[in-house]
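[Solved] Which block belongs to which protein?

Original post:
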Amino acid sequence: MGTFSADWISLIVVGFGTLFLIGELLVNMRGVFGLLGVGFITLYFLTYLDPSMFVLMMVIYFIGILLIIIDGKIINDGTLATIGAVCMILSVGLSSPNWTAGLYAIIGVLLGGGSSLAFLRVFKHRKLWSKLTLVDQLTDENGYSTVKDTHRDLLGQKGITITDMRPVGTIRVNEQEYSAVSSGQWIAKQTEVKVTHVDGTKILVSKIN
């Protein structure tokens, strides 16, 4: 019973650590979430590892965080973010004393990372993610007068993806090609989609089920 309790704690500690660290990347909390996240993750690694392995696994975990930042800031196709998530999962999984605790820790990374998206509904977004969340408002009211009327007319129309969307890609609507963003989904090319939102020159689409 005691082992089970210790294993379960891995889920809680890693979950909160990842929740606050990813949350710090998503919203502007002036480092508060970052400090909480580092505290939880440090506690997890210190509990199970000797000093040399502690440093190694901490480095791997934070390399994962760094790759997510680079993806959000520069690339925006999800590739580095996926590799970063794998680094985080491997670091906590390999640091656990047994497979049960490792599984709980991996679930903690997934749940913490997913749950951190809820912060976007409450706190101010970081500009880091503006390309994916359509934070920038390219509207006439904000001084953008170069918006094409054809983009506004796309709202509600159906089209097809002509490249993979991860989540940025190219779609074709009425024989015209446009750069678009999916609503957090990876959509394969030649998939039927619908334009759900137009924000200036940015087009948001979702897959038609």
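(Second protein starts here: sequence line, then its structure tokens.)
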Amino acid sequence: MTTPCIICVAITGSLPRKADNPAVPVTITEQIESTHAAFEAGATIAHCHVRNDDETPSSDPEKFAALKEGIEAHCPGMIVQLSTGGRSGAGQARGGMLPLAPDMASLSVGSNNFPSRVYENPPDLVDWLAAEMVTHGVKPEIEAFDLSHILKAHEMWKKGQIVGLPYVQFVMGVKNAMPADREVFDYYIKTVHRLFGEGAPWCAAGIGPNQIVLNDWAVSSGGHARTGLEDNVRLDKSTLAPSNAALVRRVVDLCAKYERPVATATQARQILGLRAAP
């Protein structure tokens, strides 16, 4: 396989705390430093959340602006992807950072169960977030927690609510949502190619111990891979991950195993149809 593999690092998320793993970066400075190390290890997309001083999740646009500025300054060309996820805020507050015009932002196009709650993505909010991304030139990453989310993304694309070829990420291993199932995973790939074309790029993310499993499936199947402390704070059952960079290096090793080059920032932008770095 000659297609370079894009590695996305989800640096912080909304849930992991320093009590879970001291390496989880919480402050803006910690996040920038952790992202820089992951970038040097091979990651070319930074999936970003921000936190309050007490480690609770935030949707503060000023915090996102500071993080975006720091990543762009210290990680030349790296793709900044800001989260519009539901744990950080409610309603349109989830998209308050989109006027910052990051390269990308996450977009969940449907609801599903989470471990202890429903992840609500009502149609009117999904439509509003998608419209804001079009207005500000932000490419969405479609977070597919269910097969219906892939088909919904196709519907939105056909309507012009998503501009450019969609980038779909399969999320597997969230408790009460889609488990890490190989037959489902393969059908997801088949569905993306049927709806968006054989060359449509896709990514996969596994939660907890499923992270390395999905990394392996994605790299070996020609897709792109997400890793990072948001999804998994361990290297194995008994070993905490020392950094985001350490988790990135595991994906780099898989790329070597399957003889795939690791995408540079420039290559990642070309594959995803993004504008050149500022």
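Accepted answer:
You had them paired correctly. Confirming on the second one: The mean pLDDT is 97.
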